[in-house]
Write a structure and sequence with these properties.
By secondary structure, the chain is an all-alpha fold. The chain contains 10 helices and 2 strands. A two-stranded antiparallel sheet has the order 1-2. α6 crosses α8 and α9 runs antiparallel to α10.
Length: about 240
């Protein structure tokens, strides 16, 4: 090899676009570990990707930790079974129960906040037993007991859940009282005080004697029975007038 060829080989270096740099012409910005601008650009690109991946992973990790700390600070249970009702409260039907708890979980409601929600909001949709009982008057207990006895005797247990909902307020009790009177006077269902019509026609005097009994007005069962007989007597007289 000639001296001129050796010198040319030693002084040449590849450029980014494939041209050759003489060593004396190598750019200052080209690091020694790279042979060309293309190699250096590729190296920077790989470095940036690696850095970006680590940054994204770190960001996700920090976000997860922050979210976990936030959830713990709110007292959010790990699952819906961690939600409990306030003391003295009975859980509603399973469907309502699960819906309430799942909503609380999905909306990051804490266990204590859930109890407060039930007490302050959901409770307003429920009937106040003492208030409803007051609407039935001084003989409320007697009226409720009379209805309960009739239901136990005449309604199948399969319908008890529905009846319990109807009987949750005063209007429900009054509804059953009306039904008891009407069915008894029509002879469809017996009550507990023997007001089902018999084959003997009723008379005004016999009913008046029963109404004069001290139990009338004090004993709700007895009072209802006498009132039902007056209703039966009125229908009886009406039928007679049409004959």
């Amino acid at each position: 090899m000639s001296e001129e060829a050796a010198t040319e080989t030693e002084t040449e270096s590849a450029s980014a676009d494939g041209t050759m740099f003489e060593k004396s012409e190598r750019p200052d910005w080209l690091l020694d570990k790279f042979n060309s601008a293309e190699d250096q650009a590729k190296g920077y690109s790989e470095l940036y990707k690696s850095y970006s991946k680590k940054t994204d992973d770190l960001r996700k990790e920090i976000h997860a930790e922050a979210q976990n700390d936030y959830i713990q600070s709110l007292g959010i249970p790990d699952d819906i079974d961690g939600y409990e009702y306030p003391e003295g409260w009975d859980a509603p039907d399973e469907g309502v129960d699960q819906t309430l708890k799942q909503w609380a979980k999905d909306n990051n409601v804490g266990a204590d906040a859930f109890k407060s929600l039930i007490s302050d909001v959901y409770s307003k949709t429920q009937a106040n037993f003492e208030e409803e009982k007051g609407k039935l008057g001084e003989n409320a207990d007697s009226r409720i007991n009379a209805v309960n006895k009739w239901i136990t005797k005449n309604i199948d247990e399969n319908h008890y859940d529905t009846i319990r909902k109807v009987m949750s307020d005063a209007s429900g009790v009054e509804f059953f009282e009306t039904m008891i009177k009407n069915t008894a006077s029509a002879g469809f269902a017996p009550d507990d005080v023997g007001s089902t019509p018999t084959s003997q026609p009723l008379t005004r005097d016999s009913i008046r004697r029963e109404q004069a009994d001290p139990r009338f007005g004090d004993d709700m069962d007895y009072t209802n029975m006498v009132r039902q007989k007056w209703q039966q007597f009125a229908r009886q007289e009406e039928l007679k007038s049409k004959r």
